[in-house]
Every structure is written in C-alpha cells, then in structure tokens.
Write a structure and sequence with these properties.
Layout (H helix, E strand, L loop, with lengths): L1 H36 L5 H29 L1 H8 L9 H35 L4 H7 L2 H30 L16 H28 L5 H7 L1
C-alpha cells in the first residue's frame, strides 16, 4: 500500500512530464510549419516564433516535472510510511503538485492552439503550398527543424542546470561547504548550465537565422 501511495503522490509529475513532451512536439511542428510557410514579418510568422518560444518553455517545464518526481520521492516515501515528523514536509509536496497541475493544463491549451493554427495555415495555403515550398531554399526547411531540435535539447539541459545552480547556490559561501564534496556540486551545476546555454544558443542561432532569411524576388513571386 505504501508503494501505491507514493505512486499516487508522484503521479501528477510523471503525467505532466509525458504530456508536456507531446505538447512540445506539437508546438515544434507548429513553429516549423508557420515559419516555413508564412512570409517573414506576417502575423503567422510572428505566431510561429511565439510557438517556438513556447515549445522551449514546455520542454523545460516537462523536464522539471520529471525531475520533481525524483526530488520529491523521499518526501513521498516518508509520508507514505506515516512518520509524524514528515508532516512538516507535506506542504513542499502539495505546493509542487499544485504548481504542476496549474502549468500543465496551460501547456495543453497552448499546444492545442498551435495545432489549430497550423491546420488553419495549411488549409489557407492549400492551393499555393506546393509553390511556396518550391520557392524556399532547400536548406531552410531542414535548418528550421534542426534548430528547433538543438534549442529543445538546450532548454532541456538548461532546466536542470539552473535548478541545480539554485539548489547549490548556498555552497558559494565556503562556510556552507563543510562536507567532503565542498563546492564541487555548485561548480558542476555552473559548468552544466554554461554548456546548456551554449547548446541553447546554437539552436536559437540556427532557428532564427532560417526564420529571418529574406525571401528573394523569385520566392515572393511564387508565394503570391
């Protein structure tokens, strides 16, 4: 029964992590479709950039939801064993569950809107979509998904890096680093965050360079 209780306590984190992965994929497809088909500077193009940003946010949220299940497991086990002293930690768990249950549905709504916007764009461009795609440089359609994927990996790593940096920030004061590890966890968190920032920056550079590429007169003619 204790195991079932632990599972029930941590289930929201696992559930929203999985749902967020699906939502991030939908938003990535929406961003790619809108940025590929829409003319630069149009409303649909800006909407595509917005979905790209929301995709990265959803990736970070999903990863933190997954890690929250691991972070909160010891508290859930303690509460499942009904240790009186563990009741002091219950607000930590309930607050985390409340936050994930608020942010999770928001990610679903945004992903649904992204899907609808993509379908509407495909329908609106159904007669000229072949000419529009033909008029784009071949590298653009490939560079956008590559950039989104790399940026997504960066957001995934950044979520963990920033969380670790915050958790180990007190170790910056050497007086708080009295155990055998000293300041090593903080240093590792900083290095991990810097690496994540580099990956995220590379993904942003790839995506934005493709998104901001100017249409040639020939492409504008075909798009018209």
């Amino acid at each position: 029964m204790g195991t079932d209780t632990v599972y029930e306590m941590l289930h929201p984190f696992h559930m929203w992590a999985q749902i967020s992965a699906l939502c991030a994929f939908v938003l990535a497809i929406a961003a790619w479709a809108l940025l590929t088909l829409a003319s630069r500077g149009s409303r649909r193009w800006w909407l595509g950039l917005g979905f790209f940003a929301l995709c990265l946010g959803t990736v970070a949220f999903g990863e933190r939801s997954r890690m929250a299940a691991s972070d909160m497991r010891s508290i859930a086990v303690c509460l499942a064993e009904q240790v009186p002293a563990c009741e002091n930690w219950r607000p930590w768990l309930t607050d985390a569950v409340d936050r994930v249950n608020i942010l999770g549905p928001m990610a679903v709504v945004v992903a649904a809107f992204g899907l609808l916007a993509t379908l509407a764009t495909l329908y609106a461009e159904r007669r000229t979509i072949t000419r529009r795609i033909a008029g784009r440089p071949p590298t653009r359609a490939l560079q956008l998904p590559l950039g989104v994927a790399v940026a997504g990996i960066g957001a995934f790593l950044m979520a963990d890096g920033v969380a670790a940096w915050i958790a180990f920030a007190p170790l910056a004061d050497i007086a708080n680093a009295g155990d055998g590890l000293g300041q090593i966890p903080l240093i590792e968190a900083i290095i991990g965050t810097i690496f994540a920032a580099v990956v995220l920056g590379a993904g942003l550079a790839l995506t934005l360079s493709a998104a901001f590429a100017r249409n040639t007169p020939r492409q504008l003619e075909l798009a018209g």
